[in-house]
Amino acid sequence: MSDRYAVIGRPINHTKSPLIHGLFAQASNQQLEYGAIEGSLDDFEAQVLQFRSEGGKGMNITAPFKLRAFELADRRSERAQLARAANALKFEDGRIVAENFDGIGLLRDIEENLGEPLRNRRVLLLGAGGAVRGALLPFLQAGPSELVIANRDMAKALALRNELDHSRLRISRYEALEGQSFDIVVNATSASLTADLPPLPADVLGEAALAYELAYGKGLTPFLRLAREQGQARLADGVGMLVEQAAEAFAWWRGVRPDTRAVINQLTIPLE
Ligand code: ATR
């Protein structure tokens, strides 16, 4: 019988994970089954344990269960700890191990696929929720000259800053970004889910080399539209991140790193 994996979330009907992992398995000649499970708000933990008891080897975790998966685990990677969230679990030797590949997936997409290394660049992250928590450690390790987190709720940004004291990390109010320029700006707020826009001062985006929208498949979000209006030519959405975090999980589970380019191309929806 082939090894079993699954993604669990709520809702789960739009997930691309089975498609992505199916393509990885095919391309790397791995025998595995990858399904999708609608998570239950009451029984999430029991569902994970049941999947494991039925021979499951690992799971991807999506909203709203990343924190609960993290808490359920017996062991947690450093980046999962900082994110306080797990997006992948591995079942091995009777233990549940938690990882978080969202940040490294985002970093790989920006550096490898979009060709914008973070080293010595000025990087702006919008938001201070789970997505930013996941990105912080890999981003700082990539050596930007400065990493700025802008958020409406400064208490949340400050809490992050206090957890991770680093000389290159700074927090800012949106208004205080006026007159500053960045090489890479990532919208990691959930504003795009409600077709909203973070309160960015004019021209913060215009100078940037890359405007990256974490949401995937939403076309030209207000953030990307603003970037284009401000003269920003280089726009990206989160499709590459989605595929790269999946590749990290696949490599962690299977010991084989799949090629991502063809899968990203297959999933890309033009930004119009
Ligand atoms: P997630 O874990 O998915 O990142 P979250 O923890 O709810 O979700 O965080 C959402 C982030 O998007 C927060 O940083 C939030 O900003 P505040 O902390 O200031 O509320 C941010 N956000 C949501 N809607 C926004 C909007 N319209 N403009 C700016 N930031 C927004």
Structure commentary:
The chain is α/β, with parallel strands linked by helices. The chain folds into two domains: 3-99, Rossmann fold; 103-238, Rossmann fold. The protein contains ten helices and twelve strands. It has a six-stranded mixed β-sheet, sandwiched between helices. The protein has a six-stranded parallel β-sheet with strand order 9-8-7-10-11-12, sandwiched between helices. The longest helix is centred in the last third of the chain and has 16 residues, at 239-254. The protein is globular. 43% of the residues are buried. The model has no long low-confidence stretch (mean pLDDT 95). The structure holds 2'-monophosphoadenosine-5'-diphosphate (ATR). The site of 2'-monophosphoadenosine-5'-diphosphate has 14 residues, from helix 6. Residues 127-131, 151-153, 156, 189-191, 196, 198 line the site of 2'-monophosphoadenosine-5'-diphosphate. This is Shikimate dehydrogenase (NADP(+)). It is an enzyme of class 1 (oxidoreductase).
The major sheet is characterized as: 6 strands, mixed
Molecules bound to protein = 2'-monophosphoadenosine-5'-diphosphate
Judging by the overall fold, what is the CATH architecture of the largest domain?
Answer: 3-Layer(aba) Sandwich
Could you tell me the CATH topology label of the largest domain. Answer: Rossmann fold
Lateral strand order in the biggest sheet: 2-1-3-5-6-4
Helix share of residues?
25-40%
Structural class estimated from helices and strands: alpha/beta
Poorly predicted parts: none
Count of distinct structural domains: 2
Beta-strand content estimate: 15-25%
Shape designation: globular
InterPro entries: Aminoacid_DH-like_N_sf, NAD(P)-bd_dom_sf, SDH_C, Shikimate_DH, Shikimate_DH-bd_N, Shikimate_DH_fam, Shikm_DH/Glu-tRNA_Rdtase
Subunit structure: Homodimer.
Domain Shikimate dehydrogenase substrate binding N-terminal: 7-88
Catalytic activity: shikimate + NADP(+) = 3-dehydroshikimate + NADPH + H(+)
